[in-house]
Write a structure and sequence with these properties.
Distance between the termini: 30 Å
Largest sheet: 8 strands, antiparallel, barrel
Number of strands: 10
Strand content: 35-45%
Helix content: 10-25%
CATH class: Mainly Beta
Shape: globular
Number of domains: 1
Number of helices: 4
Oligomer: single chain
């Protein structure tokens, strides 16, 4: 039964992430250039427009590792429902689709579907980023630390709004210092 549940979740994720990829809105901006080596590592999800699996997520961390074949090994972990809730783990694979900028990826939860995944913004120091989608249905504000100053958060949220998102849908993700840090290692 556990195997069916995981497979059913993967199919549902693929459907969610592939739905609405075509949009009549203007193209979403992406970072001009992403240094993949610097982008790799752990990113704490500070806020998002959550997918169905991310609702009630605590201590959410997205981790990227560049694989020898050029794909991105991705691990997304979080506690469900509370800081000490059950640990959930998903391992989609990222595919860089635009090698000129490295900012447009396909994220594959289940073969052969690659969901739209765009690095909208990355700071010069590679300590904060925004990942979005052309459909503007989901967005992730992430940082290298579990918390960021409110003025930095507001600046990132302004970028999200400028890209055509309804920021009233963006929700802060509870992060408990130390818990996600230990899991990310």
């Amino acid at each position: 039964m556990r195997m069916f549940s995981t497979a059913a979740t993967a199919v549902a994720l693929a459907c969610v992430f592939s739905a609405g990829c075509r949009s009549t809105q203007p193209p979403i901006a992406t970072a001009a250039s992403v240094d993949l080596g610097r982008f790799m590592g752990d990113w704490y999800v500070i806020a998002n427009i959550p997918t169905f699996i991310e609702r009630n997520a605590y201590n959410a961390v997205e981790s990227y590792r560049l694989a020898p074949d050029g794909t991105i090994d991705t691990t997304f972990t979080f506690n469900k429902g509370s800081y000490d809730g059950p640990l959930k783990r998903y391992t989609p694979r990222g595919f860089v689709l635009d090698r000129n900028s490295n900012a447009i990826w396909g994220m594959q939860f289940i073969w052969p579907i690659k969901a739209d995944y765009r690095i909208v913004y990355v700071s010069d120091a590679y300590d904060s980023t925004i990942v979005g989608r052309v459909a503007r249905d989901y967005v992730w504000i992430m940082a290298r630390t579990p918390q960021i100053p409110d003025d930095q958060y507001q600046a990132l949220l302004a970028i999200v709004e400028r890209e055509g998102y309804d920021v009233s849908q963006v929700k802060r993700v509870p992060q408990q210092a130390g818990v996600a840090d230990a899991r990310a290692k």
